[in-house]
Amino acid sequence: MLSSLLIYGGTFSVSILFSYLYNLSKSQSKITKFFWMVLILLPVCLLASLRGDVGTDTLTYIGMYGWLKHVEIFPYALEYFSGNSDLFEPGYVFLNWVSLFIYDDPKTLFFLSTFVQMSFVWLGIQSMEKYLNPNLSLFIYYLFLFNTSLNLVRQSIAVAIVFYAFQYIVNHQFMKYLVFVLLASLFHVTALLFIVLYVFSFFAQDSKGILKAIFYFFIFSSPLVVYGIIQLATSSGLISTLGLEGYNFNFSNFGWGFLFYTLPVILPLGVFSQEMNNKIPNGAYGFLFNITLLQIPFRFITYFSTYAGRLEDYASIVQVILVSMLIHNSEEGNKQVLTVYFVLWYLLYHVITFALGNTNETYPYVLG
């Protein structure tokens, strides 16, 4: 385990070092910015591409590559959009097709998949760079979500694209947001559920606070609400009618341990929310905080269905910019305390979740 920690830690550190050097350069040229982005992302792309059986579904993806490379992309996409739900999303099939033309090897696909995913993460961070520390944002993403992407490859790309698109909600550009959500759905259909996030932008304009009150009531009562809805849907046969049996809903795993993974981040973000709303324009902080709160019901769902709980990543990725915003815009005394607190928290989270708990089976890291 120690050697794997060093491999991950060393790779993440090199990437963050390049990010630090980039931010010192203050380059404005698009070509230079692209060069720096490639340099920043190269270490983790190599880490992903050179892996062996690292990630629960990695061998499955290798097997998929073996037969998807023989698929004709346009007839495949036509069949997919005709309603064949047994097919994989065409965006990922297209990546397989591109990988084949670059170099026929699954490692090419893993490199390309990670580069696409991380490009949207990086550009999403850059879209709000005035209000955060990009180096800290990368640090959070690497410790918090990168290992998950070694398993949930398709969904991680979709999550990254939706993350990038959040800037268009903040700027009230619905059509641009919609375009990128639709693009994300070409990699994982779950992205379509998050079109509704656009309504969250109206909470910032809710001077009477009625919408916020309703939303917060739903969030904090969601464990009971979610439990009741899923049990009712199961007992009434609605789950079967909707064809959701594959989500394997199970009511024997109920508990409150999910709060350990959510409250240590959500509480400090909430305590300073009013101060941050006054410092960051367009209601960006408040909007992003509301999305983060969705972690509570999404994390709770994992007690009943591991697959349904994957929706949490669409909400939890907001921490990548929200925590960085909080620290970057806090008073000097608070900034130091918050930095130490969150750095230790994400280190602890990574060790408990991935190194010890082996969630997504990314430890130990082995070369392929």
UniProtKB/TrEMBL annotation:
Q: Does the keyword DNA repair apply?
A: no
Which InterPro entries does this chain map to? EpsG-like (IPR049458)
Keywords in alphabetical order: Membrane, Transmembrane, Transmembrane helix
Q: Where are the transmembrane segments?
A: 6-22, 34-50, 109-127, 139-165, 177-201, 213-234, 254-272, 284-302, 337-357
Per the record, the domain of life is Bacteria
Q: Could you identify this protein by its name?
A: EpsG family protein
Organism of origin: Carnobacterium viridans
